[in-house]
Amino acid sequence: MTPLVGNLDRPDTLARLAGLATRIVHLAPPPAEGYVQWWRDPRTLALLRVLRRRRLPLSLVYGSTSGVYGDCAGERVAETRPLQPRTPRAQRRADAESAVRHFGRASHVRACILRIPGIYAPDREGGTPRERLQKGTPVLQAKDDVYTSHIHADDLSRALLAALWRGKPQRVYNASDDTELKMGEYFDLAADLYGLPRPRRVARDAAGDELPLMLLSFMSESRRLDNRRLKRELKIVLQHPTVASGLL
């Protein structure tokens, strides 16, 4: 394998990709705030412009986020649900999805999208709740709590590979496991598995004083991802169907 180093913020460094890349997994996040068109993802646009220059790839898979659905009040969410991204970060992801699907339709490249929830893995830096539990980070009280979805990093890798070869053109897949837990329940489960104290519960109106902004943003949206299309079309058999088997 010969790596070709390029910078998506400098499109001139990507030229060698054109005509060489045959199957592409695009996982780079959009840039953070700080530029004029804050709702756009210029990195995805830069990549797609380069890929159009010469021989087109056979397939392209974009790793998006389940955040593009917005808050679904705990409902089960299929891929056909209209997007309602609430945060600038999710709006940029929705823009990238739109660009990828347009590229696929216009060029007849088999492009598909995986909407990815929280990725976890014990061998991944920050890949489990252990550190937050050790810090004593609180979670929402039961009546304020939200559903959250997860995928083990190994299962996600297998899903990305399957999508490269078996994904349908311009198709979207929820890349989630079978877990249906609220966030506090997830932290409680992890605490029990690690032999640590369960986290304190706080009311939503008090959470802003104790929780980091990123975690607060996740606690403002509740949804349960429907992963039947992932299993049916990509033939994925999850190695870690629930977080209980994957956190250790």
Question: What are the main properties of this structure?
Answer:
single chain, 248 residues, alpha/beta, Rossmann fold, 4-stranded parallel β-sheet, 12 strands, globular
Please sum up the structure shown:
With 248 residues, the chain is of the alpha/beta class.
Largest sheet, in brief, is: 4 strands, parallel
Q: How many angstroms separate the termini?
A: 32 Å
Q: Going across the major beta sheet, what is the strand order? A: 1-2-4-9
On the 0-100 scale, what is the average pLDDT? 94
Q: How many whole angstroms does the radius of gyration measure?
A: 19 Å
CATH architecture annotation of the domain at 11-119 and 149-179 and 223-240: 3-Layer(aba) Sandwich
| H/E series | EHEEHEEHEEEHEEHEHHEHH
Structural class: alpha/beta
Low-confidence stretches: none
Q: Give the percentage of residues in beta strands.
A: 15-25%
Could you describe the 3D structure shown?
There is one protein chain. Strand 1, helix 1 and strand 2 form a beta-alpha-beta unit. This protein is α/β, with parallel strands linked by helices. Helix content is 33%, strand content 16%. The chain contains nine helices and twelve strands. The chain has a domain of 158 residues: Rossmann fold, CATH 3.40.50.720. The mean pLDDT is 94. The protein is globular. The strands form five sheets. A four-stranded parallel sheet has the order 1-2-4-9, with helices on both faces. The chain has a two-stranded parallel ribbon with strand order 3-12. A two-stranded parallel sheet has the order 5-8. Helix 1 runs parallel beside helix 2.
